[in-house]
Amino acid sequence: MIKRTLYFGTPAYLSSQHEQLSVKFPDIEKEDATIPIEDIGIVILDNPQITMTQTVVTKFLENNVAIIHCNNSHLPIGLVLNLDGNTLQSQKFKVQIEATASLKRQLWQQTVEAKIKNQAELLRLLGKDTKKLDYLSERVKSGDTNNNEAQAAVIYWGMIFADY
Question: Which strand (E) or helix (H) includes residue 98?
């Protein structure tokens, strides 16, 4: 199941009752809410006037919910993760480190192809010509040895900022 990402950008009071996150908004005309903690994957705290009980923090961590704190510029400055539940993440890191060079090159090829195709799709939505990007996306080699990613970036950003 896909976990929910919750963003709090206004003052809020977060607590826990019956395995549910209870959210109260003191300063705005917004209805209080309850959300099953087991359905939450990430909580982003982007307001200095957010209060959380220790119980809700503990419940988040017990359910592997990542808590991201933002500063006054709305940039992430901290991340709270469950220490006990990260064995799966450690296993993923290990598999990634031990991957063969050939597999890494193939995965990079797929990543670059997808990136260029996404850039082309956005330009298409903006009514721009995407022939050059389409051409580059079809010719990405294993490891992107021809540096198609950089060539596509020059084209993409040039077209995005052409009117500026």
Answer: helix 87-98
Q: Please give the model's pTM, rounded to 2 decimal places.
A: 0.55
What CA–CA distances, in Å, run from 123 to 62, 118, 154, 164? 43, 9, 13, 16
> What is d(CA 31, CA 11) in angstroms, rounded to the nearest whole number?
13
In angstroms, rounded to a whole number, what is the distance separating the alpha carbons of residues 160 and 12?
A: 38
Q: In sequence order, what are the beta bridge partners of 51?
A: 13
What order do you get walking across the sheet with 40-45 strand by strand?
Answer: 4-8, 40-45, 66-70, 76-80
Single out the residue of 156, 96, 105 nearest to residue 130, CA to CA.
Answer: 156
Tell me the pLDDT tens digit for each residue of 106-143.
Answer: 999 999 999 999 999 999 999 999 999 999 999 999 99
Q: Which stretches of the chain are DSSP H helices?
A: 54-62, 87-98, 101-125, 131-138, 148-160
Task: Confirm if 40 and 7 have CB atoms less than 8 A apart.
Answer: no
Q: How do residues 68-94 score in pLDDT, each as one tens digit?
A: 999 999 999 999 988 765 567 678 778
| Residue 113 to residue 108: CA distance in whole angstroms | 9
Other residues' Cβ atoms within 10 Å of the Cβ of residue 102 = 10
DSSP 86: G
